[in-house]
Amino acid sequence: MTEAKAFDRVADDYDRMRGGMERGRQAAAQLAGDLTAGPVLEVGVGTGIVAAGLAELGHDVHGVDVSPPMLARAAERLPGRVAVGDARALPFADGTFGNVVFTHVLHLVGDMPRALREASRVLRPGGRLLAVHGDPAADPDELVAVLDRLAVLQPARPDTPEGLDAAAREAGLERLRHEFAPDYERATTPRQLLESLERRLPPYLWDVDDGTWARVVEPALAALRALPDPDRPRSQQWRVHRSVYVRA
What we know:
With 248 residues, the protein is of the alpha/beta class. 41% of the residues lie in helices and 26% in strands. A seven-stranded mixed beta sheet has the order 3-2-1-4-5-7-6, with helices on both faces. It is globular and about 55 Å long.
């Protein structure tokens, strides 16, 4: 459970470095219009920022995650409604939920087709699966240029629109719609991004060896350190893939 151990390590800093409840509420507002009737399960709930945002909008939200330290934060936001659980073997009976939500987690589950089969299993007939997936993108700026330099370290993602569609069909899910659209705004300073990268918060940095770090990551960090006004926020609008599926 490499992913769980890595998220255990960053749990204390995750909200602060990823936008906290402000980002969670933005994401929840984008998802809420596609939910159908019935309780909601967020798989990979993390610290619960998106789930709590949906709960604030009046939804009955539950969450599972493989990282107990991350779940400890989620439990404060969703008391009694979170549990340790693997996306590939969800601890719920068939047909429990009206909705299952995956937010930027399908590339980390280890076996995306299996995770979708499990999601389909716990959905009621007519229930919906909502996924925020694939590579996010923002307009070019100084910080995006640094992240682009690190893109060579990112493995091929299984959660492309085409890959997700194929896995969803095998799981008995029919796509209702897909969009690549604005998701959240964020104002990030060079110093904040530098700290995030130095602490290896992005998953693609978890297992980078020393040689690759020196050759690829350090020059990117040096470029960040050289930017003027390191505490001036750079405003960014990030776009994401969002797909909605229905269970027959």
